[in-house]
Amino acid sequence: MITYQIDHDAHLVTCRVTIAIRVLDVGNLIEQLFADPRFDGGFNTLVVVGDATIAPDLNARNTLARLLLSWRELCAATKWGLVLPSSAWRRIAGQLIDDYGLALRNVRCFSESAAALIWFGESRRA
After folding, report:
1. Confidence class for position 124, pLDDT limits 50, 70, 90
2. What is the DSSP letter of 21?
3. pLDDT above 90: percentage of residues in the chain
4. At what angle do helices 58-74 and 87-99 cross, to 10 degrees?
5. Handedness of CA 60, 62, 65, 70 (dihedral sign)
6. Is 45 helix (H, G, I), strand (E, B) or coil?
7. Where are the domains of the chain?
């Protein structure tokens, strides 16, 4: 399951992943967000993966990366922080970030939310 929260004061969208997800779940989330009148494509995005313990297979990871890249194109000026529960997840995400050039589009992996929020704050102060 993926849920989201929009914080206008912090200019932040927080998405929480609580179980293993399918690519369809991510597509549905993107549709919901863009349909939500509170959504602002200029907000940074924090994605917190909780109990998602099953890493997707290579085909699903590539499809997921393409969906995320599409969203990034729509919100090109924002930062994305991915808070991932294990070093294995961070390695997988890091490889996808490299493979799809997402590092150049301000996407980073973190082990905790606080580090991502500090990183987001750097862009707000600039």
Report:
1. low
2. -
3. 27
4. 60
5. negative
6. strand
7. 2-55+62-113
Cα separation of 126 and 123, whole Å? 5
Beta-carbon contacts of residue 80 (< 8 Å; ≥ 6 apart)? 44, 45, 46, 47, 68, 72, 102, 105, 106, 107, 108
Of all helices (H) and strands (E), which one includes residue 52? none
Which residue is it, tokens 């369809």? 24
pLDDT digits (tens, 9 = 90+) for 25-82: 878 888 898 899 999 988 999 989 876 556 666 766 776 677 777 777 777 778 889 8
Fold classification of 2-55+62-113 is: Transcription Regulator spoIIAA (3.30.750)
Paired tokens of 62: 């590539």
Residue with tokens 């917190």: 48
Q: β-strands 80-83, 107-110: how paired? A: parallel
Give residue for tokens 């000026």.
77
